[in-house]
Design goal:
Helix content of chain A: under 10%
Strand content of chain A: over 45%
Distance between the termini of chain B: 36 Å
Helix content of chain B: under 10%
Largest interface: A-B, 22 and 25 residues
Largest sheet of chain B: 7 strands, mixed
Radius of gyration of chain A: 13 Å
Order of helices and strands of chain A: EEEEEEEEEEE
Shape of chain B: globular
Oligomer: heterodimer
Strand content of chain B: over 45%
């Protein structure tokens, strides 16, 4: 079993839709949770950074962490074609620890 | 956010040759840099952790004699793929840790280097 599970998709939605992306994990020691966006043939770009459980909002993006369920989510409101990319969740146990990535979900937002 | 650059962005080489990839943190000092490999439609796999002034720590299954890592300064790490073979063709991505990024211990990624070995 992988430490971090993420549905690879692809996920296709119409412009303006609310997108929900999710990851589950097995290691209860994970405390730091991140979402990265990766455009084709580019390096990942940090979108959201969350410590422990709770919600964090930044513009159209909301990250949620439920440590009791070992489940994290990224919501994208009013999705745009420019949001089309692969979204990777990542997490680690402590400051300076190794980042463990999910497989990435490929998202396509159709105009 | 912080900027990390990689050079070259893509490279094609013949089997048996060596290729060097550079990773630079442009606006911060990175005591730790990481090298990842990513195959098509797969996630990032950590190859090694590079600390400035010391030997790199390699992940299990990664040949340290094949993937030579040097972190000679706080802003530069290099990955050399020695005696490259077609199976080494992949997307290589570096990241640099900025420990002072707003209190967050955050990694910033370079744009990646696409290596094709013929």
């Amino acid at each position: 079993q992988k430490e971090v599970e993420q549905d690879p998709g692809p996920l296709s939605v119409p412009e303006g839709a609310i997108v929900s992306l999710n990851c589950t994990y097995s290691n209860s020691a994970f405390q730091y949770f991140m979402w990265y966006r990766q455009y084709s043939r580019k390096g990942p770009e940090l979108l959201m950074y969350t410590y422990s459980s709770g919600n964090k909002e930044d513009g159209r993006f909301t990250a949620q962490v439920d440590k009791s369920s070992k489940y994290i989510s990224l919501f994208i409101r009013d999705s745009q074609p420019s949001d089309s990319a692969t979204y990777l969740c990542a997490m680690r146990g402590n400051q300076g620890g190794k980042l463990i990535f999910g497989q990435g979900t490929e998202l396509s937002v159709k105009p | 956010g912080a900027v990390v650059s990689q050079h070259p962005s893509w490279v094609i080489c013949k089997s048996g040759t060596s290729v060097k990839i550079e990773c630079r943190s442009l606006d911060f000092q990175a005591t730790t840099m990481f090298w990842y490999r990513q195959f098509p439609k797969q996630s990032l796999m950590l190859m090694a952790t590079s600390n400035e002034g010391s030997k790199a720590t390699y992940e299990q299954g990664v040949e340290k004699d094949k993937f030579l890592i040097n972190h000679a300064s706080l802003t530069l790490s290099t990955l050399t793929v020695t005696s490259a073979h077609p199976e080494d063709s992949s997307f290589y991505i570096c990241s640099a840790r900025d420990p002072h990024a707003g209190g967050q211990d955050t990694q910033y990624f370079g744009p990646g280097t696409r290596l094709t070995v013929l």
